[in-house]
Fold this sequence. Notes:
Helix content: 55-70%
CATH class: Mainly Alpha
Number of domains: 1
Number of helices: 10
Distance between the termini: 13 Å
CATH architecture: Up-down Bundle
Strand content: under 5%
Shape: globular
Order of helices and strands: HHHHHHHHHH
CATH topology: Formate dehydrogenase/DMSO reductase fold
Radius of gyration: 21 Å
Amino acid sequence: xxxxxxxxxxxxxxxxxxxxxxxxxxxxxxxxxxxxxxxxxxxxxxxxxxxxxxxxxxxxxxxxxxxxxxxxxxxxxxxxxxxxxxxxxxxxxxxxxxxxxxxxxxxxxxxxxxxxxxxxxxxxxxxxxxxxxxxxxxxxxxxxxxxxxxxxxxxxxxxxxxxxxxxxxxxxxxxxxxxxxxxxxxxxxxxxxxxxxxxxxxxxxxxxxxxxxxxxxxxxxxxxxxxxxxxxxxxxxxxxxxxxxxxxxxxxxxxxxxxxxxxxxxxxxxxxxxxxxxxxxxxxxxxxxxxxxxxxxxxxxxxxxxxxxxx
Length: 311
């Protein structure tokens, strides 16, 4: 599949934003994070800013971005529409939670309920995003048990690393949040390796023979359907060389998982000023690594429509 940067950035930014929002909505009311003005303002600003930036970026992949609003009407049958509806609805409790925390200095009562609803909305939205890809049967690499959990794990991972940097920057670092970010990053690394292993062993059941219903021989094209590149080949027939894929996988492991883990371990033992730098650097490095990971997620996927073109 063609890895459009608008969609790559969308899935990376909204994953981190919704992960951060869900953690703030749960940990704030539980008392793990004090209802201070600046951490609340910056935290909610980062979460909602990443979400808004990602959603706006996703419209760049549409042929007619001005018609994006029409996607909201198909929520009964479309995971894309459900994602749009849930993302908009989530802004309501998130806004109320942010107002209560930042301007009223409260995280209990109705503010706590709004925070919990915002966390639920964030989780549901991430699930709908994952299901957009997990529900596509023609793409075997996505239509698997690994896709949806990956979105939830990566959202928790990037959101917790971002929250740790936020708390460290204001001198209210939490060992629990730091441990969560480290555990989530380790889990994300293991899940990504398991996903790659599954995809490498995957045997796609659909072939030219099964598609045409002709058995007993090898079906092949006598002539190419097109003499030049067309939309289907550009969007669904994108191919990446194995050597480039292997190199990008190494970069993904280093930036998205390996280096952040080392930096988070450093935060455990480093004094406060150094812990801030290590925490912020972990966010920056991991975000870059997740952009590479998302690019590979699309580039390595194969659509069965390419069988028509002899691929």
